[in-house]
Design goal:
heterodimer; A: about 270 residues; Rossmann fold; two-stranded antiparallel ribbon; globular; B: about 650 residues; mainly alpha; four-stranded parallel β-sheet; 26 helices; 8 strands; elongated
Amino acid sequence: MLIVTCIKQVPDTTQVKIDPETGTLIREGVPSIINPFDAHALEESLRLKEKYGFRVLALSMGPPSTEMTLRKALAVGADDAILLSDRAFGGADTLATSMVLAEAIRKISAQEEVALVICGKQTIDGDTAQVGPGIATRLGYSQLTSVDRVDEIDMRRKRITVRCKFEGRYEILESSLPAMVAVLREINRPRYPTVPLRIISQEAELKVWDNRSMQLSEDKIGLKGSATAVRRIFSPDREKGQILAGDEVNDPDQAARRLIEVLVSKNLISVQ
Amino acid sequence: MSSQVLLFSALFAIAVGFFLLSCYLRFSLVTIGKPDNRFNELGQRFSNMLLYAFGQKRVVTRSYLFGLNHAVFFWCFLILLIANTEFLLHGLFPASVSLSLLPDILYFTLTFIFDIVSFFALVAVLIALGRRLFVPPKYIDARTYDAFVILGLVATLMLAFFTLHGSEIALGEERAALYMPVSAFMGNFILARLPGGTLTALVTAAWWVHAVALLGFLDYLPYSKHMHILTSIPNCFFKSLEKVNTQPREEFHKGSAYGVGRVDQFRWKDLFDSFSCTECGRCNDNCPATRSGKSLNPRLVIHNIKENLLHNGRQIGKGLEPALPLIGTCREGCVTETDLWECTTCGACMEVCPVFIEHVPKIVGMRRNLVEMKSTFPGEVQSLFENMENRSNPWGIIPAERGKWVTETDVPPFEKNQTECLFYVGCTGAFDTRNKRNTLALTNIFNNAGISWGVLGKEEKCCGDSLRRLGNEYVFEQMAKENAALFQDLGVKKIVTQCPHCYNTLKNDYRQFGLNLDVSHYSEFILDLIKAGKIKLKASAGLGRVVYHDSCYLGRYNGVYDQPRELIKLSSGHTPLEMERHRQRSFCCGAGGGHMWMEENADTRINMERVRQALQQKPDTICVCCPYCVTMIEDGLTDLKVTDNIAVLDLSEVIQRALV
């Protein structure tokens, strides 16, 4: 039984700047990292592996450099990794991305039974939270989103119980397997890789699937298969910030009083 | 052959056989350790052995005057070794081996020496016994069974010696009676009134008591802490010829194990160290963790390694899995994880150990195992590890921000083939608001000197010190290699650092990566500039009473004690005040060994303890030489709610004030 963990390699957005001329992201020289939400998805997969004996497969769609991120997944304990990489997949929005990922999972499940697809809730570069549900819909899996705890998997009855965290309430949901689980960051704390696994992961053979092996219609993937397009990216203009300095900032009472004065003077709050 | 000789020969054979077997069984365990070349530079090694073992140089120190009693013991023991060898041989071959067969002058001289020395030994035993019973120091586990057995045995030996010779003198059978003052006193004043028959019986009884005690002592040795009698002299011979200020590299191959998770993963010298511990407790007396109430006890770490070796060594030698884990639960023979993480790697333990046990590399070795093999460490360390690996600084700040301070002042960039000296700023100096003040002070000083210097700005990377001390050797190695490539690429040859941790890492750790840089700490560098006439200082007033705190990585790790003091004197006009613990015995600020980035129990913080020590000197200024120390001492003053206006200044700021 397999858990497929979907991972995206993203630019470290805290280091990304927007080109004001072209309205696009300046990605040069910006290091790539594993999407932080996906690190939690991977950790949850590994914990379920340790508890129930699943195998964990890390799956990613991206340029060849994504290999580095998949090796990191192997270094923390994923058993296998597949990279979906083809120029034809490039420029995909969430619709086309979930299409490719779903088809890959369908292909994988022909070899080995897939019990769960675990995704991070969203990526830090796209922030859509659509790819996980998109995969589930295409595969006909039940979808469990905003999960902050996996309570139990009943292997015999093939059922999973999770807790979902929504604004102001929790929901305990039970579903049949296979299912797609999209996790929140608070679900766990990702582990730190051991050196022996790191070394093995450096030398491990990665499977790379391109569209020749996937055989997907070019209309359904990549830029062509995307229903949305980015028109412009921009940072909203904002007034220059102000630092309140002076001796009183070390005293909480005085600091608060000073802050209130400033906020009132700017008409941001009012005192009755 | 008389029955007495026969009986003694049998006893001798059994006792010596048992002793040799015990030694073989114990010392052969050391060979399961990993290789470590401690046989080079034999001349230097012999002189170390003479100075530290025979000269007892580290046993008797100003802080440990009681060590004098040990020195007396040691020398009495060596001299009486001759007497006791004669005693045993005489017992085996009464007719052919005896001191009394020597010419009078030699015989009288030797008997005189032995008599006096035995008396000294007896007095030393009584002093040691009195100390353990009535004034036991806190750092010694004073009233142990082991200590009393040995002191009892030595006392028995000496008393038997005097009874034996005293009785012979009383019987008029000793021709050297005039030259044996103590035995003669015993014979003439205490035993003289006894009838002849009793005296003869006493001679025989004392001889047998002496013989049995001596052989018993021999057999007991390998099973007690007094094994150090056999091991401490070679341990001084095998001591590291350089300061122990780095840890060995690891080789990362597929299928290997990393760090020390089993006792056979130590180097053989580490195992020999564990057999050399005398349980004197001086490491504990100087350990900042122990003294601030943590569970770490460096003496017990060494003791537990020994117990683990004794417990598992034979099994491991046979290729079997060890029964007792090395790192684990709180029981004899195991070192707990908590203890390992509490070490600040300040090196105070190694500095005072009379027999040069190397505690820190052992602790770091075990940390490596936890980090690299098991991925277990205090939770807060994980973000440090990730930040260092991904962003080359402890906080995870965007690397581009590292060069931000450069834009705030007049700093030349380091240019290949043009700039002579690289100022390696370090993470705290580049990112931390408080410590940027030191960086700016140094910038002023270097500009003032009119020398060729420059910085790497945002191209600079972290040196990786905290990772190495915390046992994350794998990532440290990546960072060291990156830095080595960067320095080689830019043709960097001369580096001055702000932080003693960068200093030690670039100077000592990076040598293992093929870098032989001329690295100096700014205190050395600036003093040289002053001596060369490039910087002029005018002593400025206003610092008041200045107390200086030695940074561990500058002082103990690299022997830089005088330069900062000299610079304070030149800058303030006064020699700085000294805390009780200073120079070699300085007390850690609490930030070393990765602790800058770790949590510490609020009740027992090391920095608060150090600040208390500083306050005893009633200072107006606490001058430090390390960005970590700046933070820790400032926080300590805040935590102790010290309301007096005490300034914490980095030495660079003190010098800057005095620039002409």
